[in-house]
Amino acid sequence: MNSLHIAPVQGHTDAAWRHFHHEVYGGDALYYTPFIRAEHGDLRQRDLRDFSGPLNEGLNLEPQVIFRDGAELSILLSRLAAEGASRINLNMGCPFPLQMGKGRGCGFLSNTQELGNIAAILARHPELSFSLKMRLGMEKPDEWRGAIDALRDIPLRFVAMHPRTGRQQYSGDLNLDAFRNLLDEAPWPVVYNGELHTPDDIARVASEFPGIDGVMAGRGMLARPSLFAEFVAGEEWPREKRIDVMLDFHRRLFEHYRASLCGESQLLSKIKPFWEYAEQEIGRKPWKAIMKAGSMPKYLSAVALIRE
Ligand SMILES: Cc1cc2nc3c(=O)[nH]c(=O)nc-3n(C[C@H](O)[C@H](O)[C@H](O)COP(=O)(O)O)c2cc1C
C-alpha cells in the first residue's frame, strides 16, 4: 500500500486542524480541503481563505471541488489554478441533502449528460492533475460506472471510494462487493475509504484488498488523530500517550482560535466540533460534558476530565 489520505470533513478538517494535525503528528499523508464551491461566478470566499491561507504552507494538500455542471467546474478549475493549485480532487460523493439535491456530490453521478461533458473540461487544464472521490451512487450501488466510463481517458491520479450510497449517508452496511468490482474495473489506482477507526482496521482492509493503492480516514482520524502515525509505526500507542498527544493537538487548536476569534460563544462553537467524533477515545463523561459546555470555564473543566 502506497498512500495515506486524511479525508476532508466539512466543519472539522479546516486549515487550522490540518496545520496543527501535521505539526503534532507529522507523516506524509495527503490532506484535502473540505469541498470548495462556486458562488456568483467565483470561488466562495470562505472556501478560498481556507485553501490559500498561510496555515497551509508546507502541507501535502489537495483542494477539493464540488460542482453541479461543467460551468461550475470550469470556474472552480480556472480560479484554483490561478490561486496556485496544481492538483484538484473532484467530489462525487457528498450526500448532504442540500448539495446532493442540487445535483452536486453524489447527485452528480446520475447526471449522465453533464458527466459526458466534464472530461473535455478537465482536458482543457493540462496544468492540473486530478483525482476523484466518490460513493457508489446516490440511490443505487452501481452508479459509479457512469463516472468511470465518462472519465476513462483522463489520467486520474487515483479514485477514492466510500462504498455506500448517498441515501445511506454515513451509516449502514459497507458494500464491499461493489468496492471489489470498482477495484477490478477502474483504470486508475484505487483508495479505500470508510469506517477505519484503528490501525487494525487499516491492516484488515489492506490484506482483504491487496490491490488498493491506499486508504483514507475521516471520522476515525478526528476521533483518533494518531491513527496513521500508529499504523506507520506498526504498533498501537498506549492510551495514555494517545490522550496526551491529542490534548496537545487540541490545545494548539484552541490557542489558535482564541487568538483569532472574537468572543466566547464564537470560540466555543468553533472548537467543540473538533471533539464530536471522539466519544469512544476520550470517554463518555468528558465527551458529554464538552458537547454540553456553554461557557469557557465549563469547556475547560470538561476537557480536564479526559485525564481523570
Ligand atoms: C460532517 C461531515 C462532513 C464531510 N465533508 C466532506 C467534504 O467536504 N468533502 C468530502 O469529500 N467528503 C466529506 N465527508 C465525507 C468524508 O470525507 C468520508 O468520505 C466519510 O466520512 C466516510 O469516511 P469515514 O468513515 O472515514 O469517516 C464528510 C463527512 C462528514 C461526516
Report what the structure shows.
With 308 residues, this protein is of the alpha/beta class. It has 2 domains: 3-233, Aldolase class I (TIM Barrel, Alpha-Beta Barrel), CATH 3.20.20.70; 239-307. It has helices at 15-25, 45-52, 70-82, 97-101, 112-123, 144-151, 176-185, 199-208, 219-223, 227-233, 239-260, 264-271, 279-282, 284-292, 296-304, and strands at 3-6, 30-32, 38-39, 42-43, 61-62, 64-65, 87-92, 129-137, 159-165, 190-193, 214-217. The strands form 2 sheets. Strands 5-2-1-11-10-9-8-7-6 form a 9-stranded parallel beta sheet. The protein is globular, with a radius of gyration of 19 Å. The structure holds flavin mononucleotide (FMN). Flavin mononucleotide (FMN) binds at residues 7-11, 34-35, 64, 91, 93-94, 133, 162, 170, 193-196, 217-220. Flavin mononucleotide binds next to helix 9.
Any descriptors?
single chain; 308 residues; alpha/beta; TIM Barrel; 9-stranded parallel β-sheet; two-stranded antiparallel ribbon; 15 helices; 46% helix; binds flavin mononucleotide
Domains, number: 2
Question: What sort of overall outline do the alpha carbons produce when their principal axes are compared?
Answer: globular
Class by helix and strand content?
Answer: alpha/beta
Top-tier CATH class of the largest domain: Alpha Beta
Order of helices and strands: EHEEEHEEHEHHEHEHEHEHHHHHHH
How many H/I helical runs?
Answer: 15
CATH architecture of the largest domain: Alpha-Beta Barrel
Unreliable segments of 5+ consecutive residues = none
Secondary structure: helix percent? 40-55%
Please compute the radius of gyration using only Cα atoms. Answer: 19 Å
Largest sheet: 9 strands, parallel
